[in-house]
Amino acid sequence: MKDSILYQKEAERRTNNSESLKNSFSRYLESVKQRSPNCTSSHHSVSCAKSEKQSPFQRGLYETIASIEEIPPYDTIAIDTETTGLERDAKLLGLSFCGEAGKAYWLPADKIVPFVVEATLAGKQLVMHNAKFDLQVLARNGISLYGNQIFDTMIAHQLLDENSSHSLKHLAKTVLGADVVLEKNPLQDSPLLADLKQLIEYACADADYTFQLYQLFANQLKRENLSRLFSTVEMPLVKIVSRMEDWGILLDTEKLVALQTKLYEESKAILNDIFSIAGKPFDINSPTQLSALLYDKLNLESKKKTPKGAKSTDIESLEAISEDHPIVEKILRYREIDKLCSTYLEKLPLLVDKTTGRIHCQLHQNGTVTGRFSCSEPNLQNIPRGDIIRSAFIPAPDHVFIDADFSQIELRCIAHYTQDENMLAAYHNGADLHKKTIADMLGKPIEDVTEKERFIAKSINFGLAYGMGAGGLSKRLGVSKEEAQDLMDKYFGVYSKVKSYIHLNLMEVQKRGYVVNMFGRRRRMVNGDYHKAFNALIQSTATDICKIQMVRLASALPETVKMVLQVHDELLFEVKREEAEVNLKQIVAIMETPVTGLGGKKFSVPIKVEAKIAENWADAH
Hints:
Elements: H1 4-17, H2 21-35, E1 62-64, E2 76-83, E3 92-100, E4 103-108, H3 114-121, E5 125-128, H4 131-140, E6 149-152, H5 153-160, H6 168-174, H7 186-189, H8 196-223, H9 227-247, E7 249-251, H10 253-278, H11 287-297, H12 315-320, H13 326-345, E8 358-359, E9 362-364, E10 374-376, E11 393-394, E12 399-406, H14 409-418, H15 421-428, H16 433-442, H17 451-465, H18 470-477, H19 481-494, H20 496-512, E13 514-516, E14 522-524, H21 533-556, E15 562-567, E16 570-576, H22 580-591, E17 609-614
Parallel strand pairs: 1-4, 2-5, 5-6
Antiparallel strand pairs: 2-3, 3-4, 7-8, 7-11, 9-10, 12-16, 12-17, 13-14, 15-16
Helix pairs in contact: 4-9, 5-8, 6-8, 9-21, 10-13, 14-20, 14-21, 16-17, 16-19, 17-18, 18-19, 19-20
């Protein structure tokens, strides 16, 4: 039995510090009305049409409660948060719960007592759809459920059907056959037209959908041999990513302003040079005027046509003629500066949270069909290494960054799957794979390999991992397709098992329709895109290795070490300056720990990590 006195005091505190849900709701509507002077003073109820068929999603089975303790003692329960929006400062309106199909409960915000919620849910498996968001909302409202076992139906569906939409409403309709009346929280689009009954209907339905999806997906994960990947990697990672987003990363806005000023001055100077060469000012952003200058006045050769038959001035076209006239390099640099300013320098300061002083980007742990992370709001993954903009991302005072990068992880995955003796020997002996590759291709001693020759081997090695053929290699190296094909033939002469494995992999995928990596992750090939199978296998394996090591890092490192970013094969940490050397060794040791797949099969290539302590993100490389 709970301590009734403690409960009463906490309940009184909550009552004193918040209005009832109805008053909160009314006040919120009034605030929206005040911000929107063109709106009328009254709000209208939007009725929900009943489905003709009897369905477990009927609103009559949903119940409003005054305490979470009124919910039956389910071992597994779905929980959903309802807020005034998706922003970090959005207000919590209430929680909905479902522990059996067709029956859900609504707990309004003024009845939420944080320590009672935590105590009541302790030891239970919590089912959520996009658990990362719900965990963050709850934590900001004094409720920490990070200690609970989590089942995220969104992540589960990403493993089960990576090619489809993973939105809750889409799954409710397509998987459960539900008659979804409200597609969105009624507050988010038309707050003045929403009513309390409608909000409760919406919230309870979400919890109900989520619970019933859990019942289906849990069994499907077992049948498809995905339970281990889901429970030991993806679910712990949900909590890790949630905390990473909440922690954020500091931005030196003053440095950004200085960079912007410097680049604007450079841009003006470049533009004047371009106008001087052209003989007169013109609209540099006009493809027609630029084409007339380059191809008519300067008589440069056009390498590409637009779909309408005009001579192209896109980046690829300009790069192809960049050595033909000095003006082309200037145009490319002008465009580069313009993109940097418009995409990052002007927008990044606006994304800094006023409370924390940090940028809190969205990290999507299955952002691509191969399971790779993606990033948004803003997309920090698109900032190139070595770019000056990275220098504006800084650690807190008395802290430094540790940047840890998996070395050639995709190529190590190729060596693991193909079991090519030459490639395996290079990695086990610690040789420079690119130098060894070109030395064997050309039949010369490894010490005589030039940097240009090493670049050729590097282009082939990494191009192969990303599905590049002779056509792509010819563009990459600036040689003919015949020369590129000759290099590819020599490459496969050195790594014969790589070629045979790619062929066998293609045949197998064509037969069963998907490729599966050593951890059980599947990539189902649609529209006959079987040529992407090898790349999907390599990329998904490299991704899962990174995810496994992130889970290990989170459980082994001290709390003073904050993981702040994941960018492809790179992890960025914020650590105390005086602990940095020790932390760096810990991080490298954990990331280089061998990994094991399904059936106890070990990854057969040593994992290597390059790490560096830096004062800002740019200096980490």
